[in-house]
Amino acid sequence: MAKRARVSPSTVSRALSHxxxxxxxxxxxxxxxxxxLG
Length: 38
Prior knowledge:
Elements: H1 2-5, H2 9-17, H3 24-37
């Protein structure tokens, strides 16, 4: 998931657990990959 979103695994975790700590564009990219992968 992280590789597909082009971010680190910790960024994926942060985007899901503490979205206020991640840039909005990064959060949207992570959420898009999550939606694609299910």
